[in-house]
Each structure stands twice: as structure tokens, then as C-alpha cells.
Design a protein that fits this description.
By secondary structure, this protein is mainly α. It has helices at residues 3-11, 21-41, 47-73, 81-102, 109-126.
């Protein structure tokens, strides 16, 4: 068990489920995806406020993907090489496509779809809850 997992297990409240790295990844994707999706349902926002919130949501999503890409590129990443390559490709897509969304030339919907697919994969890996 890695040191960070051991520390978490020691300090977790008795009787509470132990969270894994996958749980943390899932929660991070859920949060940024929820923020991206919420913008399409908030019609009461001014154009300026919508743009500000969209820029923040895109920034948060890019930062998450940058962290993921850095981990995937590391020599100590245990994922199969083919899966790492596909995820790295998705990371490049997210970065490029995000610029189009920020330039008001595209909808954030494909970013939401990519994140949702990642969340489904993470859910499958951690098993039923």
C-alpha cells in the first residue's frame, strides 16, 4: 500500500469507507463535469457572468486534465501503454477543444461527454458501490 493510502487509512474515521485514488479521480471529474454542465442550464446569467463562469470551469477542467496527462506520462504509471496513449490523446483533445469553447466557437458538450466516459471507466474499475 503506498504511503499516502496508509496515512489516509490511519486518519479515516472509524467505520467510514476507505477512499482510493480512483475515488479521488472520480470525484474530481464529477466536480468539473458538473460545473461545465451547470452552465448550459443557467439561462438567468448575464453574458459577462456566463463567460466568467465558463472560463473558470474550462480552466478547472484543463488543470485536471493537465494533472492526469502528467501522471500518464510518468515512468511509474502502471496503466497499460495502449490505454495511456488513448488517454494522452484525449488530454490533447481537451486542451485544444477548450480553446475553441473559450473563443465561443464550440459548445462545451464534447468536454462533458469525454469526462463522463472517463467517469464511467473509473466507476467500472472501482466496482459497484
Amino acid at each position: 500500500m503506498p504511503a499516502h493510502d496508509t496515512r489516509h487509512a490511519i486518519y479515516a474515521a472509524p467505520g467510514s469507507p476507505t477512499r482510493t485514488g480512483r475515488d479521488t479521480e472520480y470525484d474530481a471529474f464529477a466536480r468539473v463535469t458538473r460545473n461545465l454542465g451547470a452552465l448550459s442550464r443557467q439561462s438567468d446569467l448575464s453574458k459577462l457572468e456566463h463567460t466568467r463562469r465558463l472560463a473558470q470551469a474550462i480552466h478547472d477542467n484543463r488543470r485536471l486534465w493537465s494533472t492526469l496527462v502528467a501522471d500518464l506520462a510518468g515512468d511509474d504509471n502502471a496503466l497499460p501503454v495502449a490505454l495511456r496513449a488513448r488517454l494522452l490523446s484525449l488530454g490533447a483533445f481537451v486542451q485544444t477543444y477548450s480553446s475553441r469553447v473559450l473563443g465561443d466557437r464550440a459548445s462545451p458538450e464534447p468536454l462533458i461527454e469525454v469526462n463522463t466516459a472517463i467517469m464511467r471507466g473509473l466507476r467500472r474499475e472501482r466496482g459497484p458501490t
